[in-house]
Protein backbone atom coordinates (compact mmCIF):
# COMPACT_ATOMS: atom_id res chain seq x y z
CA UNK A 1 0.00 0.00 0.00
CA UNK A 2 2.91 2.32 -0.69
CA UNK A 3 0.71 4.57 -2.88
CA UNK A 4 -2.27 4.57 -0.49
CA UNK A 5 -3.35 8.04 0.64
CA UNK A 6 -3.43 8.29 4.42
CA UNK A 7 -5.00 11.65 5.10
CA UNK A 8 -6.95 14.06 7.21
CA UNK A 9 -9.52 16.62 6.07
CA UNK A 10 -10.59 20.11 7.11
CA UNK A 11 -12.48 23.01 5.55
CA UNK A 12 -11.60 26.69 5.38
CA UNK A 13 -14.67 28.18 7.04
CA UNK A 14 -14.52 25.71 9.91
CA UNK A 15 -10.88 26.33 10.91
CA UNK A 16 -9.35 29.46 9.39
CA UNK A 17 -10.96 32.32 11.30
CA UNK A 18 -9.46 35.73 10.40
CA UNK A 19 -12.71 36.95 8.87
CA UNK A 20 -11.52 40.56 8.63
CA UNK A 21 -7.96 39.88 7.50
CA UNK A 22 -6.22 39.46 4.20
CA UNK A 23 -8.98 41.02 2.12
CA UNK A 24 -11.47 38.22 2.73
CA UNK A 25 -15.07 39.00 1.85
CA UNK A 26 -18.18 37.76 3.72
CA UNK A 27 -19.76 34.39 2.98
CA UNK A 28 -23.29 33.10 3.46
CA UNK A 29 -22.16 31.41 6.66
CA UNK A 30 -20.91 34.68 8.18
CA UNK A 31 -24.51 35.85 8.47
CA UNK A 32 -26.27 32.56 9.16
CA UNK A 33 -27.63 33.05 12.67
CA UNK A 34 -29.49 29.82 13.66
CA UNK A 35 -26.27 28.40 15.15
CA UNK A 36 -25.88 26.65 18.51
CA UNK A 37 -25.63 29.23 21.33
CA UNK A 38 -24.85 31.98 18.78
CA UNK A 39 -21.39 30.55 18.14
CA UNK A 40 -19.51 31.89 15.13
CA UNK A 41 -16.38 31.00 13.19
CA UNK A 42 -14.67 34.40 13.27
CA UNK A 43 -11.71 32.83 15.10
CA UNK A 44 -12.47 29.09 14.97
CA UNK A 45 -9.07 27.30 15.13
CA UNK A 46 -7.16 30.41 14.02
CA UNK A 47 -5.60 28.27 11.30
CA UNK A 48 -4.98 31.39 9.21
CA UNK A 49 -2.23 32.28 11.68
CA UNK A 50 -1.39 28.85 13.12
CA UNK A 51 -1.07 26.77 9.95
CA UNK A 52 2.65 26.02 10.54
CA UNK A 53 1.71 24.41 13.86
CA UNK A 54 -1.03 22.41 12.17
CA UNK A 55 1.33 21.15 9.45
CA UNK A 56 3.74 20.13 12.21
CA UNK A 57 0.91 18.11 13.76
CA UNK A 58 0.29 16.39 10.43
CA UNK A 59 3.98 15.60 10.09
CA UNK A 60 3.93 14.09 13.57
CA UNK A 61 0.81 12.12 12.64
CA UNK A 62 2.53 10.68 9.57
CA UNK A 63 -0.15 11.40 6.96
CA UNK A 64 0.94 11.69 3.33
CA UNK A 65 -2.08 13.74 2.17
CA UNK A 66 -4.03 16.70 3.55
CA UNK A 67 -7.43 17.64 2.22
CA UNK A 68 -8.21 21.31 2.85
CA UNK A 69 -10.54 23.79 1.20
CA UNK A 70 -9.85 27.14 -0.38
CA UNK A 71 -12.20 29.89 0.77
CA UNK A 72 -13.88 31.41 -2.26
CA UNK A 73 -14.44 34.74 -0.42
CA UNK A 74 -10.77 34.89 0.53
CA UNK A 75 -9.67 34.54 -3.09
CA UNK A 76 -12.52 36.48 -4.72
CA UNK A 77 -14.25 38.55 -2.00
CA UNK A 78 -17.46 39.20 -3.93
CA UNK A 79 -17.39 36.09 -6.10
CA UNK A 80 -16.59 38.18 -9.16
CA UNK A 81 -13.62 40.01 -10.61
CA UNK A 82 -9.86 39.67 -10.09
CA UNK A 83 -8.15 37.62 -7.43
CA UNK A 84 -7.36 38.98 -4.01
CA UNK A 85 -3.58 38.60 -3.95
CA UNK A 86 -3.36 38.24 -0.16
CA UNK A 87 -5.82 35.39 -0.21
CA UNK A 88 -3.96 33.47 -2.89
CA UNK A 89 -0.67 34.15 -1.12
CA UNK A 90 -2.01 32.40 1.98
CA UNK A 91 -2.79 29.21 0.07
CA UNK A 92 0.46 29.48 -1.88
CA UNK A 93 2.40 29.37 1.40
CA UNK A 94 0.28 26.52 2.71
CA UNK A 95 0.76 24.39 -0.42
CA UNK A 96 4.51 25.02 -0.48
CA UNK A 97 4.84 24.06 3.18
CA UNK A 98 2.83 20.87 2.68
CA UNK A 99 5.03 19.89 -0.26
CA UNK A 100 8.16 20.60 1.81
CA UNK A 101 6.76 18.32 4.54
CA UNK A 102 6.13 15.50 2.06
CA UNK A 103 2.35 15.84 2.40
CA UNK A 104 0.30 15.86 -0.81
CA UNK A 105 -1.99 18.93 -1.01
CA UNK A 106 -5.59 17.89 -1.79
CA UNK A 107 -7.54 21.06 -2.51
CA UNK A 108 -11.31 21.47 -2.40
CA UNK A 109 -12.46 24.58 -4.25
CA UNK A 110 -15.88 24.92 -2.65
CA UNK A 111 -16.84 23.76 0.83
CA UNK A 112 -20.09 25.71 1.26
CA UNK A 113 -18.75 29.25 1.80
CA UNK A 114 -20.51 31.03 -1.09
CA UNK A 115 -19.53 34.72 -1.32
CA UNK A 116 -22.40 36.70 0.16
CA UNK A 117 -22.76 38.96 -2.87
CA UNK A 118 -23.31 35.93 -5.12
CA UNK A 119 -26.04 34.67 -2.80
CA UNK A 120 -27.73 38.04 -3.08
CA UNK A 121 -27.87 37.40 -6.84
CA UNK A 122 -29.62 34.06 -6.27
CA UNK A 123 -26.74 31.87 -5.18
CA UNK A 124 -26.96 28.31 -6.45
CA UNK A 125 -30.50 28.96 -7.70
CA UNK A 126 -28.96 31.20 -10.35
CA UNK A 127 -27.32 29.42 -13.29
CA UNK A 128 -24.80 32.27 -13.53
CA UNK A 129 -23.04 30.94 -10.43
CA UNK A 130 -21.52 28.12 -12.51
CA UNK A 131 -19.80 30.73 -14.70
CA UNK A 132 -18.57 32.60 -11.66
CA UNK A 133 -17.24 29.34 -10.20
CA UNK A 134 -15.34 28.62 -13.41
CA UNK A 135 -13.74 32.08 -13.22
CA UNK A 136 -12.78 31.51 -9.58
CA UNK A 137 -11.35 28.08 -10.41
CA UNK A 138 -9.16 29.66 -13.08
CA UNK A 139 -7.77 32.20 -10.61
CA UNK A 140 -6.83 29.44 -8.17
CA UNK A 141 -5.47 27.08 -10.82
CA UNK A 142 -3.27 29.82 -12.27
CA UNK A 143 -1.44 29.93 -8.95
CA UNK A 144 -1.62 26.39 -7.58
CA UNK A 145 -2.18 23.84 -10.36
CA UNK A 146 1.52 23.04 -10.62
CA UNK A 147 1.73 21.82 -7.00
CA UNK A 148 -1.70 20.61 -5.82
CA UNK A 149 -1.80 16.82 -6.24
CA UNK A 150 -5.57 16.24 -6.17
CA UNK A 151 -8.44 18.62 -6.87
CA UNK A 152 -12.04 18.41 -5.65
CA UNK A 153 -14.22 21.12 -7.21
CA UNK A 154 -17.35 20.86 -5.03
CA UNK A 155 -17.73 19.21 -1.64
CA UNK A 156 -20.99 17.43 -0.86
CA UNK A 157 -23.37 19.23 -3.23
CA UNK A 158 -26.20 17.15 -1.76
CA UNK A 159 -25.81 18.93 1.57
CA UNK A 160 -25.88 22.35 -0.08
CA UNK A 161 -29.15 21.53 -1.84
CA UNK A 162 -30.85 19.54 0.91
CA UNK A 163 -29.73 21.37 4.04
CA UNK A 164 -29.04 24.81 2.62
CA UNK A 165 -31.92 25.31 0.19
CA UNK A 166 -34.54 22.60 0.85
CA UNK A 167 -34.92 22.47 4.65
CA UNK A 168 -32.91 25.50 5.85
CA UNK A 169 -30.66 23.86 8.45
CA UNK A 170 -27.55 25.29 6.75
CA UNK A 171 -26.79 28.61 5.12
CA UNK A 172 -28.40 30.28 3.24
CA UNK A 173 -31.35 28.91 5.22
CA UNK A 174 -33.90 28.46 2.43
CA UNK A 175 -36.88 26.13 2.89
CA UNK A 176 -37.82 25.44 -0.71
CA UNK A 177 -38.26 21.65 -0.58
CA UNK A 178 -38.47 20.39 -4.19
CA UNK A 179 -38.08 23.94 -5.51
CA UNK A 180 -34.46 23.64 -4.35
CA UNK A 181 -33.68 21.09 -7.08
CA UNK A 182 -32.28 23.63 -9.58
CA UNK A 183 -29.39 24.14 -7.17
CA UNK A 184 -28.40 20.50 -7.64
CA UNK A 185 -28.06 20.96 -11.39
CA UNK A 186 -26.14 24.22 -11.02
CA UNK A 187 -23.76 22.60 -8.51
CA UNK A 188 -23.18 19.71 -10.91
CA UNK A 189 -22.66 22.17 -13.75
CA UNK A 190 -20.15 24.11 -11.64
CA UNK A 191 -18.29 20.86 -11.03
CA UNK A 192 -18.11 20.19 -14.76
CA UNK A 193 -17.00 23.72 -15.60
CA UNK A 194 -14.30 23.51 -12.93
CA UNK A 195 -13.05 20.17 -14.29
CA UNK A 196 -12.68 21.79 -17.72
CA UNK A 197 -10.71 24.68 -16.26
CA UNK A 198 -8.47 22.43 -14.18
CA UNK A 199 -7.71 20.21 -17.17
CA UNK A 200 -6.79 23.31 -19.20
CA UNK A 201 -4.28 24.16 -16.45
CA UNK A 202 -2.78 20.65 -16.56
CA UNK A 203 -4.07 19.72 -13.10
CA UNK A 204 -2.46 16.51 -11.86
CA UNK A 205 -5.64 14.70 -10.75
CA UNK A 206 -9.27 15.79 -10.57
CA UNK A 207 -12.12 14.07 -8.78
CA UNK A 208 -15.07 14.88 -6.55
CA UNK A 209 -16.31 14.35 -2.98
CA UNK A 210 -19.96 13.37 -2.68
CA UNK A 211 -21.80 12.60 0.52
CA UNK A 212 -23.33 9.12 0.28
CA UNK A 213 -25.71 7.22 2.52
CA UNK A 214 -27.25 3.78 2.02
CA UNK A 215 -31.03 4.24 2.00
CA UNK A 216 -32.64 1.41 3.95
CA UNK A 217 -36.40 0.75 3.72
CA UNK A 218 -38.07 0.34 7.10
CA UNK A 219 -40.07 -2.59 5.69
CA UNK A 220 -40.15 -4.25 2.26
CA UNK A 221 -43.23 -2.18 1.46
CA UNK A 222 -41.18 1.00 2.03
CA UNK A 223 -38.72 0.29 -0.77
CA UNK A 224 -40.18 3.07 -3.00
CA UNK A 225 -39.49 5.58 -0.23
CA UNK A 226 -35.88 4.41 0.10
CA UNK A 227 -35.39 4.57 -3.66
CA UNK A 228 -36.86 8.07 -3.84
CA UNK A 229 -34.55 9.28 -1.09
CA UNK A 230 -31.52 7.66 -2.68
CA UNK A 231 -32.33 9.33 -6.00
CA UNK A 232 -32.23 12.73 -4.29
CA UNK A 233 -29.31 12.17 -1.92
CA UNK A 234 -27.03 9.84 -3.89
CA UNK A 235 -27.83 9.50 -7.58
CA UNK A 236 -28.81 13.10 -8.33
CA UNK A 237 -25.09 13.89 -8.02
CA UNK A 238 -23.28 10.65 -8.85
CA UNK A 239 -25.23 9.71 -11.98
CA UNK A 240 -24.64 12.84 -14.09
CA UNK A 241 -20.97 13.06 -13.10
CA UNK A 242 -20.26 9.38 -13.73
CA UNK A 243 -22.70 8.51 -16.54
CA UNK A 244 -24.05 11.74 -18.00
CA UNK A 245 -27.65 11.19 -16.96
CA UNK A 246 -30.01 12.03 -14.12
CA UNK A 247 -32.34 9.59 -12.34
CA UNK A 248 -35.61 9.41 -14.26
CA UNK A 249 -37.63 10.48 -11.23
CA UNK A 250 -35.99 13.92 -11.04
CA UNK A 251 -34.69 14.66 -14.54
CA UNK A 252 -37.82 16.56 -15.61
CA UNK A 253 -37.57 18.82 -12.56
CA UNK A 254 -34.14 20.19 -13.48
CA UNK A 255 -33.28 23.20 -15.68
CA UNK A 256 -31.04 21.26 -18.08
CA UNK A 257 -29.81 23.18 -21.13
CA UNK A 258 -28.32 21.71 -24.29
CA UNK A 259 -24.79 20.48 -23.63
CA UNK A 260 -25.02 20.62 -19.83
CA UNK A 261 -24.73 16.87 -19.30
CA UNK A 262 -21.67 16.71 -21.58
CA UNK A 263 -20.08 19.40 -19.42
CA UNK A 264 -20.93 17.58 -16.18
CA UNK A 265 -19.92 14.11 -17.38
CA UNK A 266 -16.15 14.10 -17.81
CA UNK A 267 -13.51 11.50 -16.96
CA UNK A 268 -12.33 11.71 -13.37
CA UNK A 269 -9.10 10.46 -11.86
CA UNK A 270 -10.76 9.46 -8.59
CA UNK A 271 -14.15 9.45 -6.92
CA UNK A 272 -14.46 10.70 -3.35
CA UNK A 273 -16.99 9.20 -0.93
CA UNK A 274 -17.88 11.06 2.26
CA UNK A 275 -19.68 8.65 4.56
CA UNK A 276 -21.05 9.06 8.08
CA UNK A 277 -24.16 6.92 8.48
CA UNK A 278 -27.00 5.08 6.73
CA UNK A 279 -30.55 6.45 6.47
CA UNK A 280 -33.80 4.53 7.05
CA UNK A 281 -36.99 5.53 5.22
CA UNK A 282 -40.69 4.75 5.18
CA UNK A 283 -43.55 5.83 2.98
CA UNK A 284 -44.88 9.26 3.93
CA UNK A 285 -47.81 9.83 6.22
CA UNK A 286 -50.82 11.81 5.03
CA UNK A 287 -50.04 15.47 4.46
CA UNK A 288 -46.30 15.00 3.99
CA UNK A 289 -45.30 16.70 0.71
CA UNK A 290 -42.23 14.48 0.36
CA UNK A 291 -42.25 10.90 -0.99
CA UNK A 292 -40.55 9.55 2.14
CA UNK A 293 -40.16 9.97 5.88
CA UNK A 294 -37.03 9.33 7.91
CA UNK A 295 -37.09 6.59 10.54
CA UNK A 296 -34.73 6.30 13.49
CA UNK A 297 -32.06 3.58 13.32
CA UNK A 298 -32.01 2.27 16.88
CA UNK A 299 -30.07 -0.98 16.68
CA UNK A 300 -26.62 0.64 16.43
CA UNK A 301 -24.60 2.73 18.90
CA UNK A 302 -24.54 6.45 18.18
CA UNK A 303 -22.02 9.26 17.94
CA UNK A 304 -22.24 12.45 19.95
CA UNK A 305 -24.26 13.88 17.08
CA UNK A 306 -26.72 11.01 17.46
CA UNK A 307 -25.74 9.38 14.17
CA UNK A 308 -25.89 5.55 14.02
CA UNK A 309 -22.47 3.90 13.79
CA UNK A 310 -22.71 1.38 10.95
CA UNK A 311 -19.33 0.79 9.26
CA UNK A 312 -20.76 -1.86 6.93
CA UNK A 313 -22.81 0.89 5.32
CA UNK A 314 -19.61 2.31 3.85
CA UNK A 315 -18.73 -0.96 2.14
CA UNK A 316 -22.33 -1.28 1.00
CA UNK A 317 -22.36 2.21 -0.51
CA UNK A 318 -19.13 1.77 -2.45
CA UNK A 319 -20.36 -1.61 -3.70
CA UNK A 320 -23.59 0.01 -4.91
CA UNK A 321 -21.65 2.75 -6.67
CA UNK A 322 -19.57 0.19 -8.55
CA UNK A 323 -22.63 -1.86 -9.47
CA UNK A 324 -24.45 1.20 -10.80
CA UNK A 325 -21.34 2.68 -12.44
CA UNK A 326 -19.02 -0.13 -13.59
CA UNK A 327 -16.41 2.36 -14.87
CA UNK A 328 -16.11 4.02 -11.45
CA UNK A 329 -12.56 5.39 -11.05
CA UNK A 330 -10.43 4.64 -7.98
CA UNK A 331 -12.31 5.52 -4.79
CA UNK A 332 -10.96 7.59 -1.93
CA UNK A 333 -12.92 7.92 1.31
CA UNK A 334 -12.57 11.69 1.44
CA UNK A 335 -14.34 12.10 4.80
CA UNK A 336 -14.87 9.61 7.62
CA UNK A 337 -15.19 10.59 11.23
CA UNK A 338 -17.33 11.11 14.31
CA UNK A 339 -18.07 13.57 17.08
CA UNK A 340 -17.68 12.54 20.69
CA UNK A 341 -17.25 14.50 23.93
CA UNK A 342 -14.23 16.64 24.64
CA UNK A 343 -11.93 14.16 26.40
CA UNK A 344 -8.36 13.46 25.28
CA UNK A 345 -8.99 9.78 25.93
CA UNK A 346 -11.43 8.83 23.17
CA UNK A 347 -11.83 5.06 22.83
CA UNK A 348 -15.19 5.58 21.08
CA UNK A 349 -13.50 7.49 18.25
CA UNK A 350 -10.78 4.84 17.93
CA UNK A 351 -13.43 2.14 17.68
CA UNK A 352 -15.38 4.14 15.11
CA UNK A 353 -12.35 4.82 12.91
CA UNK A 354 -11.08 1.26 13.22
CA UNK A 355 -14.41 -0.12 12.02
CA UNK A 356 -14.78 2.35 9.18
CA UNK A 357 -11.18 1.99 8.01
CA UNK A 358 -11.62 -1.79 7.86
CA UNK A 359 -14.87 -1.29 5.94
CA UNK A 360 -13.12 1.03 3.51
CA UNK A 361 -10.24 -1.37 2.94
CA UNK A 362 -12.73 -4.19 2.40
CA UNK A 363 -14.15 -2.07 -0.43
CA UNK A 364 -10.68 -1.74 -2.00
CA UNK A 365 -10.32 2.03 -1.71
CA UNK A 366 -7.19 3.97 -2.61
CA UNK A 367 -7.25 6.54 0.16
CA UNK A 368 -8.79 7.29 3.55
CA UNK A 369 -9.14 10.80 5.00
CA UNK A 370 -10.22 11.20 8.62
CA UNK A 371 -12.63 14.01 9.38
CA UNK A 372 -11.10 15.85 11.01
CA UNK A 373 -7.57 16.82 11.96
CA UNK A 374 -8.87 19.44 14.42
CA UNK A 375 -11.93 20.16 16.46
CA UNK A 376 -13.64 22.95 14.55
CA UNK A 377 -16.73 25.06 14.00
CA UNK A 378 -19.32 22.42 13.14
CA UNK A 379 -21.77 24.48 11.10
CA UNK A 380 -25.19 24.84 12.76
CA UNK A 381 -23.90 22.94 15.82
CA UNK A 382 -21.23 25.56 16.48
CA UNK A 383 -18.57 24.24 18.86
CA UNK A 384 -20.86 21.71 20.53
CA UNK A 385 -19.58 18.78 18.44
CA UNK A 386 -15.92 17.74 18.28
CA UNK A 387 -14.60 15.62 15.42
CA UNK A 388 -10.87 16.19 15.85
CA UNK A 389 -8.00 13.79 16.22
CA UNK A 390 -6.58 16.89 17.91
CA UNK A 391 -8.44 18.61 20.74
CA UNK A 392 -8.58 22.40 20.39
CA UNK A 393 -9.10 24.68 23.38
CA UNK A 394 -10.99 27.47 21.65
CA UNK A 395 -10.13 29.96 24.40
CA UNK A 396 -6.34 29.45 24.26
CA UNK A 397 -5.98 27.72 20.86
CA UNK A 398 -3.84 25.04 22.52
CA UNK A 399 -3.83 21.86 20.43
CA UNK A 400 -3.62 18.50 22.22
CA UNK A 401 -3.49 15.22 20.26
CA UNK A 402 -6.11 12.75 21.42
CA UNK A 403 -5.53 9.02 21.88
CA UNK A 404 -7.12 8.57 18.44
CA UNK A 405 -4.31 10.68 16.96
CA UNK A 406 -1.73 8.28 18.32
CA UNK A 407 -3.79 5.29 17.19
CA UNK A 408 -4.02 6.62 13.64
CA UNK A 409 -0.28 7.32 13.63
CA UNK A 410 0.38 3.69 14.53
CA UNK A 411 -1.98 2.45 11.82
CA UNK A 412 -0.26 4.61 9.19
CA UNK A 413 3.20 3.49 10.27
CA UNK A 414 2.12 -0.15 10.27
CA UNK A 415 2.87 -0.43 13.95
UniProtKB/TrEMBL annotation:
<protein>
    <recommendedName>
        <fullName>Beta-glucosidase</fullName>
        <ecNumber>3.2.1.21</ecNumber>
    </recommendedName>
</protein>
<dbReference type="Pfam" id="PF00232">
    <property type="entry name" value="Glyco_hydro_1"/>
</dbReference>
<dbReference type="InterPro" id="IPR017853">
    <property type="entry name" value="GH"/>
</dbReference>
<dbReference type="InterPro" id="IPR001360">
    <property type="entry name" value="Glyco_hydro_1"/>
</dbReference>
<feature type="binding site">
    <location>
        <position position="155"/>
    </location>
    <ligand>
        <name>substrate</name>
    </ligand>
</feature>
<dbReference type="InterPro" id="IPR033132">
    <property type="entry name" value="GH_1_N_CS"/>
</dbReference>
<keyword id="KW-0378">Hydrolase</keyword>
<dbReference type="GO" id="GO:0005829">
    <property type="term" value="C:cytosol"/>
</dbReference>
<feature type="binding site">
    <location>
        <position position="14"/>
    </location>
    <ligand>
        <name>substrate</name>
    </ligand>
</feature>
<feature type="binding site">
    <location>
        <begin position="378"/>
        <end position="379"/>
    </location>
    <ligand>
        <name>substrate</name>
    </ligand>
</feature>
<keyword id="KW-0136">Cellulose degradation</keyword>
<keyword id="KW-0624">Polysaccharide degradation</keyword>
<keyword id="KW-0326">Glycosidase</keyword>
<comment type="similarity">
    <text>Belongs to the glycosyl hydrolase 1 family.</text>
</comment>
<dbReference type="GO" id="GO:0008422">
    <property type="term" value="F:beta-glucosidase activity"/>
</dbReference>
<dbReference type="GO" id="GO:0030245">
    <property type="term" value="P:cellulose catabolic process"/>
</dbReference>
<feature type="active site" description="Nucleophile">
    <location>
        <position position="335"/>
    </location>
</feature>
<feature type="active site" description="Proton donor">
    <location>
        <position position="156"/>
    </location>
</feature>
<feature type="binding site">
    <location>
        <position position="371"/>
    </location>
    <ligand>
        <name>substrate</name>
    </ligand>
</feature>
<feature type="binding site">
    <location>
        <position position="111"/>
    </location>
    <ligand>
        <name>substrate</name>
    </ligand>
</feature>
<keyword id="KW-0119">Carbohydrate metabolism</keyword>
<dbReference type="InterPro" id="IPR017736">
    <property type="entry name" value="Glyco_hydro_1_beta-glucosidase"/>
</dbReference>
<feature type="binding site">
    <location>
        <position position="276"/>
    </location>
    <ligand>
        <name>substrate</name>
    </ligand>
</feature>
